Amino acid sequence: MSDMPPVAKKVPVERTHHGDTVVDDYAWLFSKDDPDTISHLEAENAYTEEVTGHLKDLQETVFQEIKSRTLETDLSVPSRKGAWWYYSRTEEGKQYGIQCRVAVDGDSPPVLTAGVPLPGEQVLLDGNELAGDSAFFAIGTSAISPDGTKLAYSTDFTGDERFTLRFKDLESGELLADEIPGVFYGGAWSADGSTFFYSTIDDAWRPYRIYRHTLGSDDDVIVYQEDDERFWVGIGLTRSQRYLIVSAGSKITSEVRVLDADDPTGEFTLVRPRRTGVEYGLDHAGDHFLVLHNEGAVNFELATAPIDDPGTWTPLIEHRDDTRLLDVDAFKDHIVVHFRRDGLSGIRILPRDGREPYEISFPEPIYDVAPAGNAEFETSRLRLGYTSMITPTSVYDYDLQTNELILLKQKAVLGGYDPADYEQFRAWATADDGTKVPISIVVRKGTDRPAPTLLYGYGSYETSIDPYFSVARLSLLDRGFVFAVAHVRGGGEMGRHWYEDGKLNKKKNTFSDFVACARHLKAEGLSSRIIARGGSAGGLLMGAVANLAPEEFAGVVAEVPFVDALNTILDPSLPLTVVEWDEWGDPLHDPEVYAYMKSYSPYENVDGRAYPPILAITSLNDTRVLYHEPAKWIARLRESAQGGPFLLKTEMGAGHGGRSGRYDAWREEAFALSWILDRVGVTE
Q: Given CA atoms 364, 369, 374, 377 in this order, what sign does their dihedral have?
């Protein structure tokens, strides 16, 4: 095979918006059914495989490192729901998890031993059996009925996130005849388990309808339809199992409806009509509702509302400029608030026995904590998930009576991992406008500095990339790398204003913040050559910083990257369009938004400068960021830019999250990490 990269044919397509005429030579790659498109993607894969062929041994080494550090036969901490303890386990050599349960015998979780099934264990779903020989497999929904006798679950075998819903009788073990194709994630049972509510999507991949399905019937009823293309809908059952909640939300506005779960054929009651810019959510707390909302409270406040008048809100936790309220969980005897302050997450407890509210403290300088696995409404313990950049994912029970934090399980890291061998800390870069931008950093102690660095970023949708542990990352740290996360504006790390300052007509702050972080790491003597990495909207960040400051980076890894942002947001028929106008602006109808997006959209701004090597990874069946975006971007880089090489790797049978099996995912990560190591000459 030739060592020359594939050259995409040019088929000029001219478009005009707001008086601006541009020519797109690679728009033809949008056609997934065109044999030329598939041939081009396969040629790109072959070229990437050839160019990275010298890394095969390193890829295998890194894969084996990930595998050898992972306890392949493992299990989760059981969570109680009703009369059962629920857990999942993995087995060595098997790609997917196995969902199980055992009957409750006492208040304490059963003691599990990896690889040893408990007496009386009932297997609910075995992902390996369900997947069969399929190259891709994912579960979208797994919901137990309130009485514990039925299971609703959905499966996807292509990666397009359109699932088929099925039902299982857990008493007999038999699969029911009911089968519903084309459903979205999630769903909720009625209180008596006779009825299941689910959502479906429209042609733009927007969940817009809620259906009611009565078991044994094929006459499903639409109970809610959302016609505003900016809004997604979903349905859930409160922890108390008393109320069904239908939520409709755009990027900036919410609307909630509620129904007694004992009356599944009844009419949903509107809590408050939508008002642009007002977001709210509802939970049931016994004799009242809890409402988390941002009406007159940019960082949100918590209110109570009467059961018979849920639209009347009385403040319980008032707004604070320094604290972003993220979520609220209602229990019989207490309320749990998940919040963010000073760039870190936290937990606040509001007892309902008259004791003063308080917060749980944690010793590490940077970490992430959140409620997790709390299915029971009446409980004296709170289940928490905790991690940091040096602490593996940990599960705690917090005793609400004694205030004791009880470690139930910490994810095993084999091979002699010792967190004391590593250090984590936070740095602060200064952005172009003077804003201080936090950076979370981890490095192996004794690493010579400045060191090669992998700098990760996202910066959209108020999504926070909190400090987290990664087994795969150890393969970099143990080879003398620094790993850092740039908490750029557009994310939510520093509160709602941090998000507002990195969206719409302030989107460029996201990109300049990332460059400022890279320059800070070098100026402080921590980093030498920096590889940038990001995915999805973080892939947009990667494309933008490659245009903005290509000289700062020794390489760029862009995964399922949103790099053709302007053309996508101009097309209302695509998934990332109408619902995204609140995030990016509406370039179709607003000439100022068009001009602003054109000024930063990566595909539109490739020029003749020298770019660093770029690796773009995508999936053919991705329904969120379509494969053609990185394919077009790489083609334009090859045509116009100097430097490189510019590589495209397309998973031909996967979706937005890449390959589904854990061993396959480890191999994909080993591929990316070996490329990153090669960029800085660390191949041993």
A: positive
Do the Cβ atoms of 388 and 424 come closer than 8 Å? yes
Strand 527-535, strand 555-559: pairing? parallel
| Structure-token pair, residue 318 | 């008032």
- pLDDT band at 408; cut points 50, 70, 90: very high
Active site residues: 536, 622, 656
Euclidean distance between CA atoms 146 and 188, whole angstroms: 10
In our burial notation (b when 16+ CB lie closer than 10 A, e otherwise), range 72-106 reads bebbbbbbbbeebbbbbbbbeebbbbbbbbbebee
Which pairs from 627-631 meet CB under 8 Å and 24+ separation? Answer: 627/32, 627/41, 628/29, 628/30, 628/32, 628/37, 628/564, 629/561, 629/562, 629/563, 629/564, 629/568, 629/603, 630/539, 630/558, 630/560, 630/561, 630/563, 631/8, 631/26, 631/29, 631/40, 631/41, 631/44
Residues 6+ away with beta carbon under 8 Å from 217: none
The neighbour count for residue 152, using CB atoms within 10 Å, is 26
Strand order, beta sheet including 301-306: 280-284, 288-293, 301-306, 314-317
Cα dihedral 504/505/509/512 (nearest 10) = 120
Q: 9-23, 195-209, 482-496, 642-656 — which is least confidently predicted?
A: 642-656
Cis, bond preceding 110 (omega within 30 deg of 0) = no
Q: Are strands 381-387 and 394-399 parallel, antiparallel or unpaired?
A: antiparallel
The H-or-E segment that residue 547 falls in is helix 537-548
What are the structure tokens assigned to 286, written together?
């016994």
- Determine if residue 373 is left, alpha or beta; phi over 0 gives left, psi from -120 to 50 gives alpha, anything else beta: left
Phi, psi of 54 (to 5 degrees): -70, -10
Global pTM reads 0.90
| DSSP class of 511 | H
* The token pair that represents 189 in the structure block: 């049972």
Given a contact cutoff of 8 angstroms between Cβ atoms, the answer to whether 561 and 532 are in contact is no
H/E run at residue 381: strand 381-387
Chain CA centroid to CA 395, Å: 20
Q: Exposed, middle or buried by CB within 10 Å (0-12, 13-18, 19+), for 313?
A: buried
Output the CA torsion sign for 350, 354, 356, 362: negative
Higher-scoring residue by pLDDT: 144, 107? 144
Q: How many CB atoms lie within 10 A of CB 468?
A: 17
Whole-angstrom distance, CA of residue 382 vs CA of residue 403: 10
Q: Please tell me the distance from the alpha carbon of residue 232 to that of residue 250, in angstroms, as a whole number.
A: 6
H/E stretch holding 100 reads strand 98-103
Strands 334-341 and 324-330: antiparallel
For 574, the 3-state DSSP assignment is: coil
- Rounded CA-CA distance 355/99 in Å is 38
DSSP class of residue 78 equals P
What pLDDT, on the 0 to 100 scale, is given for residue 225? 98
Contacting residues for 520 by C-beta, under 8 A, at least 6 apart: 427, 428, 429, 430, 439
